[in-house]
Amino acid sequence: MRLRQPVWPRILPTKTVLACARLGPVGRLLPAPGTWGSVAGLLYFTVFFAHGLNVASLVLLNAIGLYVAVALCGEAEIRLGRKDPGEVILDEFVAMPLCYLGWTQLLDPLPLWAVLLAGLAIFRVFDILKPCGIYKLQDLPGGWGVVIDDIAAALATCATMHAGQWAWHHFHA
Fold this sequence. Notes:
By secondary structure, the protein is mainly alpha-helical. It has six helices and no strands. The longest helix is centred in the last third of the chain and has 30 residues, at 142-171.
């Protein structure tokens, strides 16, 4: 199976593609637009997902969002003429909710605000440093390379938080 850049965004005006990929003005916030995109994704998770959606719904809605992000981020790369431009932050935005899969299990011993901030901090570390082969995912074509590394960073964040929670209970029981 060969991953291809979705073609449907080609019909959209450049202004629309870039506004979506940048989350409006958020992608132009300095310093560190990726961090601002992650904060926006955290707020998105908090408002829409933390209040009642089960894991299956979270994954389904995220899959749709991730596909849209692949399409728009890849098209933004083409229109800007740069690979994974820093101002394109839709990828961080849609990946952030994946950091919190099974989040209710993380609430012992931490309060919700600490879980949310830990997820944000760990995600930013994984997204910036791209350890454990995450950096290789950027080589995928088009928007796939822009988005998949963020998905991997989010899933690594989720695994790290659950491992930390398991270790806390295992060694403090």
